[in-house]
Design goal:
Elements: E1 3-8, E2 21-23, E3 26-28, H1 30-42, E4 45-50, H2 67-73, E5 79-85, H3 88-93, E6 95-96, E7 101-110, H4 128-151, H5 168-179, H6 191-220, H7 231-235, E8 241-244, H8 249-256, H9 260-272, H10 279-288, E9 291-296, H11 297-306, E10 310-312, E11 317-326, H12 332-345, H13 348-356, H14 377-409, H15 413-426, H16 434-443
């Protein structure tokens, strides 16, 4: 095996998390694990040192390179392994492998920079199907109370002379009062009506508990719905200040772009001088609020994993890759590229990414979803059983009265029952009371 001299970048006088981290006298991190895996596949030994000037590598006006790229060009290091962006200028100066990680440019904001509330956000705790089911249950319960109040002789004993207290409109009002926990009298007197009412009360208590619980959760997760979803939203508003790292490739992307939206973003940053001097400063300003930090998506993902109050916008532009650099024309380049592709195909790179970008905010990522109709099937079943039992009791109450009437009138029970049902269901809100009939006779 060959002994190669490997260069590791850690940032200006600091280690760059999570690529290279100091742990005692040892170095660890994503790049260390990647280097170890590549070395195993290619069978070489290596020695690690930190870049002297703490820079990735930039070309000056004379064409000379500094930082990691400069040390590889001058032969001071055989390899440079770091989040080195693969660019045309660097590809001309050194050899670059296939990218071991894809990144792009995105936006970092506080979670509480959210959309304005909609007019009908109060409906979000339940799905449309659930609301339809609740409406059907409401109308079905009101209809059941109305019918049972007419059938049950305990509720309406003299349909020829008494006014029925439960008209259909009053049944709707009574059911709505129970739904809002306000109540609306009069209450049913018959056992059948009370069974239906108790079933509806139980249904409404559980329903309201689900509604308010999910409403609270949906309001707390509203912050994930960003007002700034992408760069066009950012360019079209002037409420939130935004900026990027001074002198970075991110700034160069906006500066050199012909896209009018990206040009407006660059001109705004130049006009307001809203640049930050370091990644840490950008994250700090984003945490303070009213500032959107534009940077490379993998770095922003790390900030989101470490700071639970931050979130990254979904849009990612200017896709690019991080590569390992070696001397121009080095035979290592081909073998390193093959090893990187093998690690990618085996899922090793994805594993390393999840290992070093693990979030400490897993509990905060839970987002409430509207309650589905099938989630409340137990409630609807209990209500249906209550309505059915109430209707059955009402029929039994009427049958009992019809039996007694059949004995008194010397008719069959079925005949009396049929007459009672016909009278009760055909009568409107009520037949006029007997005294009204007497008054009519007097007028005649």
């Amino acid at each position: 095996s060959t002994n190669h001299h490997i260069l590791i970048h850690t940032g200006s006088c600091m280690f760059q998390e999570p690529y290279t981290i100091s742990k005692g006298t040892q170095l660890e991190g994503f790049c260390m694990d990647l280097l170890s895996e590549v070395a195993k596949k290619l069978g070489f030994k290596y020695r690690v040192q930190l870049v002297k000037d703490g820079s990735y590598g930039r070309q000056d006006d004379n064409g000379n390179w500094n930082g990691m790229i400069g040390e590889v060009v001058r032969g001071e290091a055989d390899l440079a392994i770091a989040p080195l962006t693969l660019t045309a200028a660097r590809e001309k100066a050194v050899g670059m492998t296939k990218p071991f990680m894809q990144t792009g440019i995105s936006i970092l904001l506080r979670k509480d920079i959210s959309e304005g509330s909609g007019f009908f956000d109060f409906l979000t705790p339940f799905t449309a199907e659930t609301w339809v089911g609740i409406l059907i249950a409401y109308l079905g319960t009101a209809a059941s109370i109305f019918i049972v109040a007419r059938i049950s002789p305990c509720e309406w004993s003299q349909p020829q002379s008494e006014q029925n207290r439960f008209s259909f409109l009053h049944s709707l009002w009574y059911t709505a009062g129970a739904l809002t926990l306000q109540g609306a009298g009069p209450h049913p007197k018959a056992l059948s009506g009370r069974v239906i009412c108790c079933s509806w009360w139980f249904f409404t208590v559980v329903l309201l508990a689900c509604y308010f619980s999910n409403l609270s959760s949906s309001k707390s997760s509203e912050s994930a719905q960003l007002m700034v979803k992408g760069f066009e939203d950012l360019a079209n508003q002037d409420t939130i200040e935004y900026g990027c790292l001074a002198g970075s490739s991110t700034l160069a992307f906006f500066k050199n772009s012909n896209n009018p939206v990206y040009r407006r973003i660059y001109e705004h940053m130049e006009r307001t001088k809203s640049f930050v001097s370091s990644m840490d400063e950008g994250v700090r300003r984003a945490k303070e609020g009213n500032f959107a930090f534009i940077g490379e998506s993998v770095s922003l993902d790390l900030a989101v994993a470490r700071h639970c109050e931050l979130v990254r916008a979904h849009e990612v532009v200017g896709m690019r890759g991080y590569s390992i650099a070696a001397a121009f024309g080095s035979p290592l380049i081909k073998n390193l590229s093959v090893a990187i592709l093998q690690l990618s195909e085996a899922g090793e790179l994805a594993y390393l990414r999840s290992k070093w970008w693990a979030s400490s905010c897993i509990a905060d990522r839970t987002k409430s979803s509207p309650v589905q109709l099938h989630s409340l099937k137990g409630m609807f079943l209990v209500l249906s059983l209550g309505l059915g039992l109430g209707a059955l009791l009402a029929v039994l109450e009427l049958t009992s009265k019809s039996r007694r009437g059949a004995v008194e009138q010397r008719k069959s029970c079925c005949t009396v029952l049929t007459e009672e049902l016909s009278l009760r269901l055909r009568t409107s809100n009520a037949s006029r009371p007997q005294e009204n009939v007497d008054k009519d006779k007097e007028k005649a």
